[in-house]
Amino acid sequence: MSTIDCTNKTVREINQFIRRNMSEGTDEIRITSPAAQHNIGVGLVQPVHLSIDGSVGYYCGGMIDGPMVHIHGSAGWGVGEGMMNGTVIVDGHAGNGAAASIRGGTVVIKGDAAARCGIAMKGGKVIVGGSVGYMSGFMMQKGTMVVCGDAGEGIGDSLYEGVIFVAGDIEDLGHDAVIEEPTDADKSQIDDQLTQFGIDHPGNFKKIVAGRKLWNFDKREWDVWKSAL
Q1: Fewest CB within 10 angstroms: 114, 150, 195, 209, which?
Q2: Which residues pair with 151 in a beta bridge?
């Protein structure tokens, strides 16, 4: 394992250290004293275990394809944004836009996630041990979100083929989002995922899917759209 103390180092120096060690074949890198700097560990496209001892700023682990990024603290906006594949784990809380536009992989937030968690997902999984803020899951194309706590207003607004599971209270469903009963396969998959990442199971989940009224627009059905919106 290679370790870098980030005290008095720029984010460029930190990321250069990460990339240099990856190019030399190091598969475990530890970052200490990150001081909530932004953009740590972005754009990494090789397998590596990146352990960050402390909280990070914006966009940590963004646009990665393969690494495992474990943040032993909290994260600012956009953690894991645009990820193709890999795993991002946040032991604390996450700011706005966590896991936005991911295409694959898994983002785990053991605390709460703020507004717009998992928006525009194209695939992958998001697991939140706490609650999520407003407009989370907005325009999810594909993928799965599991929320063990509560959900703010507008959850699942304009869903396509994404699926959201919420164990706690739902303040308000988004446009064209509906609730249906989880299947046995859904429950088994959730059980496995929560066990894998050491998150306590909160009990029963509600399953949010698209009502499909907004999937196709036809000007002759404008009244249908107005009712859905």
Answers
A1: 195
A2: 132, 170
Token duo for residue 115: 């507004």
Question: Which two tokens mark 112?
Answer: 């709460």
**Per-residue confidence of the chain (229 residues) as pLDDT tens digits?**
999 999 999 999 999 999 999 999 999 999 999 999 999 999 999 999 999 999 999 999 999 999 999 999 999 999 999 999 999 999 999 999 999 999 999 999 999 999 999 999 999 999 999 999 999 999 999 999 999 999 999 999 999 999 999 999 999 999 999 999 999 999 999 999 999 999 999 999 999 999 988 777 666 666 655 555 5
Specify whether the CB–CB gap between 133 and 155 falls below 8 A.
no
Domain that holds residue 198: 2-228
Task: Please state the domain count of the chain.
Answer: 1
